[in-house]
Structures are given as C-alpha cells and as structure tokens.
Design goal:
Elements lengths: L2 E8 L3 H13 L5 E4 L18 H10 L24 H4 L7 E2 L17 E2 L28 H14 L2 E2 L7 H14 L8 E2 L2 E6 L2 E4 L2 H5 L2 H4 L3 E4 L2 E9 L2 E9 L5 E11 L2 H11 L15 E4 L1 E4 L17 E4 L7 E7 L18 E3 L2 E3 L8 E9 L5 E6 L4 H21 E3 L4 E2 L36 E3 L14 H16 L12
Parallel strand pairs: 1-2, 1-12, 2-9, 12-23
Antiparallel strand pairs: 3-4, 5-7, 6-15, 7-8, 10-11, 11-12, 13-18, 13-22, 14-17, 14-21, 15-16, 16-17, 16-18, 19-20
Helix pairs in contact: 1-10, 4-10, 5-9
The structure holds flavin-adenine dinucleotide.
Length: 509
Amino acid sequence: MTEQVDVLIVGSGPAGSTYARTIGDAVPTARILMVEVGPRIPGTRGEHTLNMSEEARVAAQLLTQGPEAGVERAKALADIGDGIDPSLEFRQTILPGLFFLDPRPKLEDGEVGLSAASMASGVGGMGIHWGTSSPRPHQSERIPFIPADELDAALDHAEQLLRVTKWDGPGTGLSAKIRLQMAEEFDGPGLTPAGFMPSSLHWENGRPQFSGTGVILGDLESKVSGFELRAETLARRVIVEDGVAVGAVLEDRRTGESYEVRAEHVVVCADGLRTPQVLFASGVRPTALGHYLNEHFQVGAFGYLDDEFDPARFEDEPEHLGYVLVPFSDARPMQGGITAIGNSPYSISLGDPALASKLMACPWYGAKDIQYRDRVEFSETETDFYGMPKMTIHYSRTDTDLVTIQQLKENAARSAARIGTLAEEPALAAGGSSIHYQGTVRMGATNDGLSVCDQYLKVWDVENLYVGGNGVIPTSTASNPTLTTVALAWRAATELATHLPSECSRRLW
Ligand SMILES: Cc1cc2nc3c(=O)[nH]c(=O)nc-3n(C[C@H](O)[C@H](O)[C@H](O)COP(=O)(O)OP(=O)(O)OC[C@H]3O[C@@H](n4cnc5c(N)ncnc54)[C@H](O)[C@@H]3O)c2cc1C
C-alpha cells in the first residue's frame, strides 16, 4: 500500500525543522514525514556539534560529509591537510562536516565561480555545525513586500525557536571597550549603531549550549505521534500531477530501493543549492529557478590584540560572547564582526601559540550586486554522487562588487587597527565560504517570472508545493541569514497549517 502523509518535508536542517515544529504545534494530529538524505548522528537528534566532546564532534563531522565522509578536515587555520589549497583565502573556508560541490570549477568568461561552495548531509543539515550568529536583517535587507509588523513578529518567533540570546546595552569589561571603539569608528547618521551579535545559544552550568536543530524540534515526537524523521532517505523528485504536488519518489540510501509517498503538501528545504536541484529533477522549472544566486562576500582579518585589550586584564560578564557587531546599513552595505576569540568557545588557532589568548578576528560580510546570470545550473544528463542532476555554478563580480570588496578590506583593517595588529592583510575568502547561498528559489510579491515562490513560500503555479531555506531570500544581504530563514519558514508553515484539517487523523486514507 502506498504510504500517505499530510506533509512531506525534504531536508532536516533549520528550515525543514521549523516547518515540522510549526505544523506539529498547530495540528498535533498531522502525519508529518521529514526525510533526510544524510545519516543520523549518534546521541541526541539535532544536537549542535559544539556541545559535543571533541571525539564525538569529529565523529559527527566525518559522518555528514556526504561523498567525502570520513575525510579528515583542518582543525585550525594553521593546520591544513594534504591536498587543500594552503592560501589564506582558502584557509578561511570552514571545512569540517561539509563537502565541496566542486573546489576546482571550470570557469566561463568573466566568472569567478564559488570554489568553496559546500554542503552538509546529515540529520540537522548545516544546522548542527553552524556558528549561531543570528542578527536581524536591517533596512534594505528586509523583504519589502512583507508588512513590517509581520516580518518583526516572524523574527520574534524565530528568535524563540532558535533560543537566541541578545546582549543589549553597553556591555561590560573588554566587550564594552571593544564595542565603544567600534562605535567611535563606524557609527554615524543613518547607520545602524554598533552593538553585540545575537547568538542562538543559552547557558547551562556556566557553559554555552549552541542551538542545533534539536532545539527547534523540541519534543515534537512526544507531542505529535504522526511525526517521523527518516534518515538516509533521498527525495529523488516531487510528483506533480495536473499542476498539483501529490507526493515524492524517495530512495532508501541503504538498500537503493525506490518507493512513492503520497502527501497533501510537499515542502522542499534541501539547502540553497539542492532545493532548486530537487525542483529541477521534478520538472518544476520556473525561469528564475537557480538564478539570482547570491553569496555575500566574506573578508577575514586575523591578528592580535594590543596590550590595552589583553583579555587577561579584564573581567567580562561570564555569560557574554563579546562578539561586537557593526550591522548592515544601506549607506554601508556590509556587516562587521569583531571578537577576541582566543579564549572564546570558538576554538581556532593561528600562528604563535604563546599569543593565542590575544587572538582577534574581524570577519566582514558584504552584500552582492545580484544578477540573473549568477546561477546554479543543473545537467539533464550528468548526475552527482547522489544520482541527482549535476550542479555547475556560474558566478561573477560586477564593478559594484569590486568596490564593495575593496571597502570590506578597508573596514576590516580599520576595525582591527582600533584594537590590535593584523597578522596578515585582510583577504577575501574563496567564493562560497560564507555558506549562505541565497536567491536560488527566491520569493516574490507577484508571479512575474522573477521569482520561484510567493511570500508564503508556495511555489508559483504548482499547488501544495512549498520551499524553504536561505534560497528564498530575495534581497541583497550582508547579515547571516539563518534567523531570517527560520522566520520565513515559520510564517510559511503557519499559513500552510491553516490548509490542514484540525483533526487530520480522523480522515480515512
Ligand atoms: C560552519 C558553519 C557556520 C555557519 N555559521 C552561521 C552563522 O553563524 N549564522 C548563520 O545565520 N548561518 C550560519 N551558517 C549557515 C547555516 O548553517 C545555514 O544557513 C542553515 O543551516 C540553512 O538551513 P537549511 O535548513 O536551509 O539547510 P541545511 O541546514 O543545509 O539543511 C538541508 C538538509 O537537506 C538535506 N537534503 C538535501 N537534498 C536532499 C534530498 N534530495 N533529499 C533529502 N534530503 C536532502 C541535506 O542533507 C541537509 O541536511 C553556518 C554554516 C556552517 C556550515
């Protein structure tokens, strides 16, 4: 007998988990099947790898690397394995837990590609590896066709789902001193003032607990008996009949067996690159699919704090990450982060171990000049490791982008110079390093061919088919996107749930 569900969700990252939790909360009798191509990770489902012991973290990272499962990655910026490009721009790519799409892409005229484009395949997706920085979008980063109060309410919900901690006010100790330096350097009329980076974490017994997708799902299994998370299950294609999504063809990765599941609603949250891949494989190919690919530029600057800012001289609030944020503004379309990371939970090392406690990082993100021609292209004939349409990325930089990159480098250097000395000149990270691929299934106000889905993430011209993930974000952003992605998925799932009968289980299949 063919399996029947109310909602089939493809992908178990933050976006898919938000759909599952929100629909389950709204309609506890719903039958919700969430499929994930990667494996389960031992331990609590959806646990963030930063909460694990070193041994468990490395084991989890090795499991989620898809075709590169088991390949050891660099543990530190100074510790580069054989075969990995040793340049600083590549060292800034965050490798553990991920696998590359194609680190040596063939480039067409005028393209720069995204050589560091990466993905994770495992329960929780990238949402068990992420850095948890959760800034709100500002000014033109916000989606203009969602009423401001509705977007704010969705962001409020997203902060609850992700257990975001915010640090308002001037801060204390070293954090306050660094924030003041950045405010003096970067605040001005029309500019969003410097503050602290909100983070998806909370504190337990004096230790930060980073939010993985387990935090989003909560105790869904015990409240919604019809919820199932099925790992090692590939969604090969969505079945669309007469313009209506009615289910999907799934493949058990352990046996290779293919089977059909029928669903009232299908939601694809398979990351910024693979969500359009699933749609393409399903024959859902609106003009904008895969286009307007937007990965913001990332410039990293590492160095050492001056004696005046030596963490040893300060007593900061113990429950403070001290990550100073220079937010995005239209007049300066970039976001700066400045942090003393030597003693922070983000353990990386660079150069002289004796200076480790004075290590500082100043990562800056710059907004991309979005172009139709920047895209992920899918092959009709060739396939990837999973047997899905092979992806090729086309990515270029406009003159505006070149100016942005230059300003990013200058601002990164300015922020570092306020508090210390750079170890190396600020460098542009290899394309794809931000792991924030947006725009590929972008939302739009109207069905005018420039977007893939509406403001509730329903795919235009296909009934009962929804998408989610960073790919839906249509604006040119510098801020880290996951909070916005969760907000948009919460809003879409809330709308989707209104189409389900309140007592799903009473229906006869
Ligand atoms: C090291 C690191 C640091 C990061 N730091 C930050 C940060 O500080 N702030 C921030 O905002 N963002 C950060 N990110 C990005 C953040 O993790 C992503 O924005 C977020 O995980 C996207 O959620 P998602 O659900 O759309 O996709 P994902 O988390 O990638 O999940 C998608 C899932 O879909 C699965 N899938 C794909 N295709 C199929 C298929 N055909 N069938 C079944 N399953 C499929 C994948 O295996 C994957 O598990 C970081 C990411 C990494 C890796």
